[in-house]
Amino acid sequence: MKNFRVWKALLKIRFQNLMMFRLGFWGPFFVDGSLFLIQLAIFDAIYANVERIGSWGRGEMILYIGTFSLINAVNMVVYFFGVNGIAGKIRSGEMDLYLTKPVSPLFRLTFECMNPGSLPLLLFSAGIIGYGIRTAGIRMSAERILVYLFYLVLMIVLYYEMEVLLRSVAFYLVSNARMEQLEEAGLNLCMNLPGIAFYGIYKVVFYGILPYGIMATLPVQGLIGELSPGMAAHGAGIVCTFGGITALAWKKGMRHYNSASS
After folding, report:
1. 236 contacts: CB under 8 Å, gap ≥ 6
2. Closest to 131 in 3D by CA, of 142, 123, 143, 119
3. 56 bridge partner residues
4. What's the whole-model pTM score?
């Protein structure tokens, strides 16, 4: 309940700050909407002449793109801008201010920069998902929808864990720019290519080490009835594993942190 009250206060402060400058509030609606349309154009150009990728046809691929976009949209609305500033606050010593607050530093960093300007991406992504379901002719059932939603939530958590983990490197290094470049490259690849296309060492990397390959793949497989028990367990295990690694890295990083006053 304490964290919920803090979250409400952070949300209120965020809206007040944004509404002080109206362009800062409405601008992201236009920018994020334009970027989403560009992504769709790129997808159409790539898959215009591709009939199938593995067992997936065009409908499943549209569903995949919509699902990945939805996960990314939640990230942009809720926590990206807060988490993305972690490295800068560590280097500048601004993290000191968060250590003096009566709330978890990571909790405040996560939710203090929520971005309502990206809300249209949620609606656009939902529309793409609906179009993909219709194009693929998927037979819907309550069980499949629940599996899809369950793994969608798990993958949103995994996305968050990966962002925090890669930025926690800033506790130990002068710059984590290379880690962010690695994140961007992995996301760009897996946003356009589903996990079912990976084999051999690539599957090891994108299913286990940098698990961006499973983020939209598993929810889609659950919705179309292709999710095996082994992969279902693997997805849940990866989320739990990276949750533990992220918590440990953050905890040790906070102990390693040297404040600006020291």
Report:
1. 154
2. 123
3. 53
4. 0.84
pLDDT tens digits, one per residue of 130-179: 989 998 888 889 999 999 999 999 999 999 999 999 998 888 876 777 78
What amino acid is encoded at 152 in this protein?
L
> Tokens 């793409």 label which residue?
128
Cα–Cα distance, 234 to 204 (Å, whole number): 12
C-alpha dihedral (198, 153, 66, 47), degrees to nearest 10: 0
